Amino acid sequence: MKVLARWRALRASYASALIGLVSPLLVPLDARAEGPIEQIGLDYSAPAECPSAEQVLRQIAGYTAKWTLAHGRDDVRHFRLRAEHRDGAYVGRFDLREADGTTVGREVTGDSCEDVALALAITVALAIDPRATVGVGEESPSPVGVQVTDAPPAPNDSSSPPRGEPKVGTVPDRPVKPAARADVASPRMNLAVGARVEGTTAVSGLLAVIDAFFEIEAERAIERLPWFRPVVRVGLRQSFTRTASVGDARVDIGWTAGQIEACPSRLVFASQLSVEGCLGANVGELTALARDIPGAERTRRLWFDYGGLLALRWQAHPNLFAELAGASWVPRTRDRLRVAPDGLVSRAPEVGFSAGVGIGWRF
Questions:
Q1: What is the pLDDT of residues 14-50, one digit of tens each?
Q2: What pTM was computed for the model?
Q3: Is 180 in the same domain as 193?
Q4: How far apart are alpha carbons 153 and 170 in whole angstroms?
Q5: Buried-state track 179-189, b at ≥16 Cβ within 10 A, e below 16
């Protein structure tokens, strides 16, 4: 009970301090506290490990219901929220642009992005409704240790976020229930490029392969299914040459294929770790060239296989990631490569396996 009482006291203390800090943003209590629903604009951007725009909207709605998002209007107050990781801590930026164009800024600093995002949500709630009930609910953790400081207005501030940053979606110009506002944001599309070094037995013996890919991830594509984060990946696989011997003949074997992988969901846990299961296919060609036969021509065969892949990814940095991947493949074209009169050089198995490590960059 003492711990709970102290927790509530800390929360109440933080709320009181924050009310004082945002008081320059507020209109007189009697002018807004009992007023109608306010239409506002709101943009939010943060690293992947931070709460999503939907979560921040929920937190604001949990403190006050006296607001609704407006469709790209310039005659309403506009809130611009940003969070970033800086010097071992998380820094949140709050900018309020009034309808007349004047701007007021605040910065908050905390040990975790969850605390910073909550502080930003509370600041927005108090700017909308000075009598918002902050510090008494039990749904969100108290942002203990968050520091709030004045900050100069952001340069070139406008109602639209900088190019490349996600923007919170809007709803019709009418009051909506707080529970419905959590579904207004559009899916966040994450782009990444990467490369893997793999070994595969699905083509011809054991081949070493370089795999370069580009991927698109739809984060929170369905609000009510937060775990549903589909991923589509396309790329190119190129093998190193493998020399196979049969009798006195030696044959250089190579493989080139375009790839596509579709993953129903990327499950994120422990903030930096995620796992995904995917279905994939490779389409390309298998080549062979006899080295010791004068005038021999390169043989080319169409290649197609499909299979399943399992990958574990570590997001070591907001942009840089490393991963381990394993897969099984079923070749559909299993041409035999034969050197006469020595015999069979290569034939794909009914089922092959691959494993590899990779790195990538997330934009």
A1: 455 454 444 444 444 444 445 578 888 888 988 888 9
A2: 0.49
A3: no
A4: 24
A5: eebbebbebbe
* 60 plus 159 within the same structural domain: yes
Q: Are residues 156 and 253 in the same domain?
A: no
What's the rounded Cα separation, in Å, for the pair 325 and 342?
Answer: 37
Give me the number of domains the chain comprises: 2
Q: How many whole angstroms separate alpha carbon 358 and alpha carbon 346?
A: 28
Confidence of residue 144 (pLDDT cuts 50, 70, 90): very low
126 and 62 co-located in one domain: yes
Provide the greatest CA pair distance for the chain. Answer: 98
Query: Where residue 170 falls among pLDDT bands split at 50, 70, 90?
Result: very low
Q: Of 329, 10, 47, 61, give the one whose Cα is nearest residue 182.
A: 61
Q: Are residues 265 and 230 in contact, defined by beta-carbon separation less than 8 angstroms?
A: yes
Q: Which residues constitute the domain of residue 17?
A: 2-185
Q: Reply yes or no on whether the pLDDT at 209 is more than 90.
A: yes
Looking at residue 103, what is its pLDDT?
85
Helices (H) and strands (E) in the chain, counts: 5, 18
Query: At residue 352, what are phi and psi to the nearest 5 degrees?
Result: -120, 170
197/170 same-domain check: no
CA distance 138 to 128: 21
DSSP label at 36? Answer: -
The Cα–Cα gap between 263 and 266 comes to: 7
Whether the predicted pLDDT of 220 surpasses 50: yes
Please list, in sequence order, all residues whose beta carbon lies within 8 angstroms of the beta carbon of residue 100, skipping any fewer than 6 positions away.
Answer: none
Is the distance from CB of 125 to CB of 132 less than 8 angstroms?
yes
